[in-house]
Specification:
- This is DUF112 domain-containing protein.
- The chain contains 21 helices and two strands.
- By secondary structure, it is mainly alpha-helical.
- A two-stranded antiparallel sheet has the order 1-2.
- β1 and β2 form a beta hairpin.
Amino acid sequence: MNTFDFLLQGLAIAAQPINLFYALIGVTLGTLVGVLPGIGPALTVALLLPVTYQLDPAGSLIMFAGIYYGGMYGGSTTSILLNTPGESASIVTALEGNKMARAGRGGPALATAAIGSFVAGLLATIALAFIAPYVVKFALSFGPREYFALMMLAFVTVSAAFGDSTLRGLTALFVGLAFSIVGIDQLTGQTRLSFGVPDLLDGLEVTTLAVAMFAIGETLYVAAQGARAPEKVEAVRGSLWMNKSDWSRSWKPWLRGTAIGFPIGAMPAGGADVSSFLSYSAEKQFSKHPEEFGKGAIEGVAGPEAANNASAAGTLVPLLTLGLPTTATAAIMLAGFQQFGLQPGPLLFATNPQLVWGLIASLLIANFMLLVLNLPLIGLWVRLLTIPKPWLYAGILVFATLGTIGANPSVFELGLLLTFGVLGYVMRVFGYPIAPVIVGLILGPMAEQQLRRALSISQGDPTVLVTSPIAAILLALAAIALIVPMILRARGKGQVLAQVAGSED
């Protein structure tokens, strides 16, 4: 069967009424959390993990993917109207979008963001469908040493990409790796770090850790910030639609943003943040109206919005084909797969093709749903910005607690939820990223298993890890991903110090 046949099969699965319902819930929730400042897709998927524990795996994963796409869409609303990005990838959109809103052109800014997101999401999802099978064919040649090298690349890129410090990212990763060895060793049967507690013999629940670190930790962190001055929401004045000039200035940035966002999203150290900044820079160079940048250039909204949505589809390439998460939301989605006993990777395409292709096809449907939801209901999304933060985060706290009790009714599990929630808060206070902890807990046992297999085959010879060309290349990429961010950050700090010294002179 070719890609078209698999995609048609996937569309038949995604078009089932129950899966359409899950997709609608996902895109609606995703847009909602994207609109609300400070609540991203990762937090929402983490909250829903315990709730979906007893649901159909395909429907739950379709809903999670819808939340991811919807969060990218919704983030543009707060960026444009509030100058406060709901998602980190929408920071660039705020630069020009809010200027347009202040000039009475909030409608066209929202329209180009929504249509650009639709175009990019559609093209990138089609690219995902056609590229994924080739990546799977390549990955099927992997042995234990190649998989271990791939896990090392995942560990390093996630640690280096998140947060402002590589050292803090690696520290967070090692916390996750320490959590991953709690329980009974599958090879020797020995207990590790269980401290005689029977509840820890099966290891730590990924769901509990994800909900605690993302939801509880974020709630405590926001509560600790105290009251802030109310933010001003720019009213949408005039027509919501774009005129002929807006269309002519937007369609090329949409395509360029897609071309930039998809491959960068698929890279281990990529992500929507990087692609949206690159797209903005490209549009500034290509624009026939460079003087408008910084004052409300529509290209500065169209390109970055297309780039961050294309990047979301690109992120699913390494996640589905290699089991490699490159964003916080992808890490939580990986936990969602494992919750149902599924491991993303090349074997998943062979053992459960209906689920994988149903998930990919559902993204096409989700794009159409999001376009219908975003433009006509913009007034509703704007009203959500008036919800008081104490109500919002109190609701998150209650929902997280009830979800954990529903998935695992245990006093000990609730204690872990509170403990890890406090840990998540402390890590945020000191600037440590959360995603590497989750990735370490999920991928740690797999990396250990593959390392043991490789060393068993080679009878303890560690050089086997670099004798394979693929493994050597992956390990070299991991080293580059570790060193390059440190050099760039050091150079950036040096430039800042030079500027400060120059200003003092």
